Amino acid sequence: MTAPAFASFLVAAARSPELADTSDLYGWLVGSWGLEVRWYAGADVAGLGLTGELHADRILEGRGIQDVWIMPRRVDRVGPRDPVRNMYGTTLRIWDPAIEAWRITWINPARNYTEQQVGRPRGNDIVQLGTRANGTLTRWSFLERAPGSFRWIGDVLEPDGLTWRREGEFVATRTA
Hints:
Helix content is 5%, strand content 53%. The chain is mainly β.
């Protein structure tokens, strides 16, 4: 089966009528985005000029949103890559009416990493909370959302139970 044929079974043209407009938390994400990477893997990388790309679309008859996060950008993926700064992963975001929230699964096979969270609105922001297999609490947030940009941050709760530590930060600009 060719990729375009498979994509035709996955990608949806519109939101499912089963998903209310008020529950369409991630619909604004559909499209393509350029990423400026400020933090990654717990390190400040702002001075390295590291960039990435993000592409998102509606899937599964419009009941979900799937995205692909790529770092470095595809055009920059030549030669050996730094295994710590290699991201080519996907997020599945599926609305769960039973909990009135979005179930999120992030998979980055480039680093053999998986994360599960639950996403809900918090004011104008979107906050996703989860717990890693080792018990570490995670918080990933979409902040400062505007029609052509947003900021994404990923934090983990320190063992003191009070302090959130930054693991990742991306500034996104819409490209399509």
